[in-house]
């Protein structure tokens, strides 16, 4: 599955290029609990089609009822300058719109966004460019420009600025059943996935739709992949000749997650090798994760993939996991 923001913007572009009226809704503020984070977007066509999400579904239903002819009513989508709308201000509204207790969110609604600007934005995002989209609130005029780094949404009395793309990416070292499950989970979590394995007899995940396959040696594949702050590198071969150099190369990048599968004993042996033979230190290996995953008692490849994907998403979302979820610590506690 492709990046959700790109999907929303591409669909909105297609509607507008076809001459359909449509709007773009962006979550700009939240108070208390909120189902979707600030910056989330949703596109709505006047005929009632929806892509993306700004809540758990009830607010989407209200927007469809208010701004489309989906139910055969006489309402029409307005035009003109963008408009702000709030949901969940009262307890009754929170209940009506399915917001958690105390939850309130504010949306910016842009009516009939310019299709040429959308086309230019989507084209850059499809090329892997991080982009900044600025909306002038007075009239809805949009400018786009490359962004140097990811940034949180900004809104003031004059402009809304939202940063989009590029996709989160995953590089898997080593083909096999586990990599198939993990690649599939990463794909439906919005990651672009590349599988690297120079061993032809092990490459089994090439049939997964959307997964790129590399036959380079893993350390060369890491260089080609060029991990950035939206990238993770996961070694799954259990073979030091393949895993170690790739992991060392990945640790020199801005990848938000670098880790390798294996037991507690194998993870410690890997660290010892890297310190003894590759001039590493405990400090230089601080970002190296292993054993990877969170402890859920997983034994089978699909369960292990769930465990690993959960940890990757937690790190991506800057969630501090309890120490008891670390595989090594949890197994030590159980052994005691």
From TrEMBL:
Instruction: Look up the domain of life of the source.
Output: Bacteria
What residues does the XdhC Rossmann domain cover? 170-312
Where's the XdhC- CoxI domain?
A: 15-70
This one is known as XdhC family protein
